Amino acid sequence: MISLKEIGKICGLAESTVSKALKQAPGIKKETAARVMNVARQYGYQPNAMVECIQTGRSRSIGIAFNKFQCEFAGAVMEGIHQTLHEYEYDSYLISWDRLVKDKVDLLSRFSRRRVDGLLLFPMAEPPTPEQISDLNRFHNPVVLIDGRLPGNNFDHVGADNRSIFPTIIKYLKEEGYRNIGIVSYTRNENGRERRAAFLETMAEFNLPVNARACVDLSDCWNEAYDAAKRLLSDRKNRPDALLCFNDYVANDVLDAACDLGIRVPEELGIIGFGNLPLTKRARPRLATVDQYPGRIGQIAAELLLSRINGKEKGARKNIILPTDFIPRDSIQKNNKKRV
Question: Distance from the CA of 260 to the CA of which of 66, 93, 224, 291 falls in 20 to 30 A?
């Protein structure tokens, strides 16, 4: 790979002038900068990231603490993040947060050794300890939380609105003739707590009774939903006629349980998920859901972090809540309304 010194020889310039031209520093003529940039592109020049980090104090990289690699929602958030990082010419270091916490490895020291300019943090599987939160507070660069806040509210946060869509959902279900509406929630997660609370508040607003037996709270949203749904739906006496689910994966498990029990969807049971993942369109019947626009969450989170890093955003911490949309589909459409 060509060096600054070699570019200087080709252009007839000092190495220091070449360096300034590549950085578009003031005092360099436009013609000189253009000639240097042309030669650099022609010979595939790449700056030394380690040298640049020492000179500027920035690595042009961020750390990402990630968990559910098999989750379509998290994957869509990551796609939004990396599209933004690519646009701004930033790299990323990805670390499995939960695995390192389980193995008692110091997560932040790994990011610090890499000299990352900031952190994007996905929610942990287990609530963070006071020590972990204290470590984050001492981290020297900006931190943005994605789709889940931490106690103390000391960090920027970007997530989806978990509450305001519920009146639209309950109104729709009521118009479709559903009355015994339940929820399969996961309140170990902040989003799950907010959705359950919004469900209960909205049911009261619509003067609909809440059947406590139809309100199931999962302890493991990945492995428990099918069995929990099968137990709930086997009780014909107290069986709900519609279920709102923590996410689309839970909704798909509920659909499988209903199918195995011979319960017709949507005629005997309406099902709604959260996330609008691709699986909702592959299911039969297609699953109604709430679109949270995960790619947009990733994009906004990355843009906010880069604005903090570059000094464009200097104010108090931000809590950005993005709007959601209700997507009615076959799993709740008893009256043959237009499909989407």
Answer: 291
The 3-class SS string of 26-45 reads CCCCHHHHHHHHHHHHHCCC
pLDDT digits (tens, 9 = 90+) for 96-149: 877 766 666 666 666 766 678 999 999 887 777 777 778 788 888 899 999 988
Which one, of 144, 69, 82, lies nearest residue 307 by Cα? 144
Residue 277 CB neighbour total at 10 angstroms: 24
Query: At 123, is the secondary structure helix, strand, or coil?
Result: coil
E strand or H helix at 65: strand 61-66
Q: Is the peptide bond before 127 cis (omega within 30 degrees of 0)?
A: no
Helices 225-234 and 248-260: angle between axes, nearest 10 degrees? 40
Which sign, positive or negative, has the C-alpha torsion 94, 131, 299, 23? negative
Q: At 144, is the secondary structure helix, strand, or coil?
A: strand
**Side-chain half-sphere exposure of 310, counting CA atoms within 13 A:** 11
Specify the DSSP class assigned to residue 275. B
CA distance 28 to 75: 43
CA distance linking residue 318 with residue 33, whole number of Å: 39
Q: Cα-Cα-Cα-Cα dihedral of 127, 131, 136, 139, to 10°? A: -160
Q: Structure tokens of 89?
A: 């010419």
Cα torsion for 272, 273, 278, 279, to the nearest 10°? Answer: -80
Instruction: Please state whether the peptide bond connecting residue 285 to the residue before it is cis, i.e. omega within 30 degrees of 0.
Output: yes
CB 95 within 8 A of CB 107: yes
51-80, pLDDT tens digit by residue? 454 455 566 899 998 887 889 999 999 999
Q: Return the ∠ at Cα 109 (arms to 107 and 111), rounded to 5°.
A: 75
